[in-house]
Design goal:
CATH topology of the largest domain: UDP-n-acetylglucosamine1-carboxyvinyl-transferase, Chain
Subcellular location: Cytoplasm
Function: Cell wall formation. Adds enolpyruvyl to UDP-N-acetylglucosamine.
CATH class of the largest domain: Alpha Beta
Protein name: UDP-N-acetylglucosamine 1-carboxyvinyltransferase
CATH superfamily of the largest domain: Enolpyruvate transferase domain
Catalytic activity: phosphoenolpyruvate + UDP-N-acetyl-alpha-D-glucosamine = UDP-N-acetyl-3-O-(1-carboxyvinyl)-alpha-D-glucosamine + phosphate
Shape: elongated
Strand content: 25-35%
CATH architecture of the largest domain: Alpha-beta prism
Largest sheet: 4 strands, mixed
Radius of gyration: 21 Å
Family: Belongs to the EPSP synthase family. MurA subfamily.
Bound molecules: uridine-diphosphate-N-acetylglucosamine, phosphoenolpyruvate
Number of helices: 13
């Protein structure tokens, strides 16, 4: 196992290039199952989740080949085999195998997903969707077994706005008979990206990115070529790191519209945010105002940026409040930040953050974004070295993190534990 070493105190300066979005990639790869010929995905991020998904598709019989950031997936010989454990346990998004295999073959047996389990993350809305489409769903020894003689379009109202359930239902409904509507659908940019791919494969999906999505089922789908949208969570993390180190960084290859909630909060703190066509420049300031942040579904402030934002708020002069309305208890970064000297207490679903300097410490990333929070925190500390274990979580979501930060002038390296 490796650990990440951070000697902070240097303002980040320069340009960082943002790769494709993890949360799109891990949905687009299983979406390729629905096609009967080759799907080519460009701008894939080099992340452990993406590598694992490629291996899962190979295990199911797909031809998979990489060239740079492009993956070619030939699903013509793919079959629906049970996947009760193994690789499906390594990532959250293995749940998309359910919708994709159900759509193409009418059956799937998939182990309950793994990934970052910062709190219980139910999939009841996914199952409700599959059942509404006519599938029988049962839990057999920790695996979800789904079977349908025929999938029929249905009207599905989601009780909670769920990214995963919205995409999973889109996948299965693309090959159902008749029309499916998803009401109270999630509106994240990754949902539009998946709908764009599916439509290029021959699906008929309208309304992705709004709260009502209409899917007219088709009998067959074909291959296509698609380029993945930029990762707004990676982009937001670098925006935060630039501000936290009082740096001057251009975050390149982003869609500034996707970053609006993040940009607005940085401006409120006193950070200079300069938007260009496909990049954002962040110019830090010597002192920051404390602010309130509410993590919400898109277009609200992303919950996946809540943890690194907590680290930035330790740099404000005064008390900030950060409330997560998506997850009630996503605070595994807080005890570790406290170990670094932060004044933070958790009350209900809020973190109350008192600004002040941090110290270097030995800390552990308990999940992906908790890890990002610790990296940001370490970058602010001028004395000593912050040692971060649990790097395997960080590798789920940040490709070339060490190289990118070093190029921006940070003193960061990996060592064997
Ligand atoms: C692979 C991927 O894209 N992961 C993202 C996706 O996760 P994921 O798709 O798992 O998250 P959801 O949008 O489904 O979860 C939102 C909320 O709904 C609840 N819920 C969800 C489904 C369900 O069946 N029942 C239920 O109660 C969850 O517990 C959570 O409180 O969106 C989250 C919210 O933006 C992000 O943090 C994750 O990075
Ligand atoms: C929680 C996250 O991912 P996942 O849903 O894949 O665990 C995340 O990206 O912050």
């Amino acid at each position: 196992m490796e650990k990440l070493m951070v000697r902070g105190g240097r303002p980040l300066r320069g340009t960082v290039q943002i790769s494709g979005a993890k949360n799109s990639a891990v949905a687009l790869l299983p979406a390729a199952i629905l096609a009967e010929s080759e799907v080519v995905l460009d701008n894939l991020p080099q992340l452990s989740d993406v590598a694992v998904y490629g291996e899962i598709l190979e295990q199911l019989g797909a031809g998979v080949s990489w060239s740079g950031d492009t993956m070619r997936i030939d699903p013509s010989r793919l079959r629906s085999a049970p996947m009760p454990d193994g690789k499906v346990k390594l990532l959250r998004a293995s749940y998309y195998l359910m919708g994709a295999l159900l759509g193409r073959f009418g059956e799937a047996v998939i182990g309950l997903p793994g990934g970052c389990n910062f709190e219980p993350r139910p999939i009841d809305q996914h199952i409700k969707g599959f059942e509404a489409l006519g599938a029988e769903v049962s839990n057999e020894h920790g695996s979800i077994r789904i079977f349908a003689r025929e999938l029929r379009g249905a009207k599905i109202y989601l009780d909670v706005v769920s990214v995963g359930a919205t995409i999973n239902i889109m996948l299965a409904a693309s090959r159902a008979k008749g029309v499916t509507t998803i009401e109270n659908a999630a509106k994240e940019p990754e949902i539009i990206d998946v709908a764009t791919l599916l439509n290029a494969m021959g699906a008929r999906i309208k309304g992705a990115g709004t709260e009502t999505i209409r899917i007219e089922g088709v009998e067959a789908m074909h291959g296509c070529r698609h380029s993945i949208i930029p990762d707004r969570i990676q982009a937001g993390t670098y925006m935060i790191a630039a501000a936290a180190t009082r740096g001057d960084v251009v975050i390149d290859g982003v869609i500034p519209k996707h970053m609006e909630a993040m940009s607005a909060k940085l401006v409120e703190m006193g950070v200079q945010v300069i938007e260009m066509d496909e990049s954002i420049r962040i110019v830090g300031a010597p002192a920051y105002e404390p602010i309130d942040v509410r993590a919400l579904v898109y277009p609200g402030f992303a919950t996946d940026l809540q943890s690194p934002m907590t680290s930035l708020l330790t740099q404000a002069s005064g008390v900030s409040i950060l409330t997560d309305y998506v997850y009630s208890n996503r605070f595994k970064h807080v005890p570790e930040l406290v170990r670094m000297g932060a004044g933070i207490r958790v009350e209900g679903r809020s973190a109350i953050i008192e600004g002040g300097p941090l110290n270097a410490a030995k800390v552990r990333a308990a999940d992906l974004r908790a890890g990002a929070a610790l990296v940001v925190a370490g970058l602010t500390v001028p004395e000593g070295v912050t040692e971060i274990t649990g790097v395997e979580y960080i590798d789920r979501g940040y490709d070339n993190l060490v190289e990118n930060l070093r190029r921006l002038g940070a003193d960061v390296w990996r060592e064997q534990e």
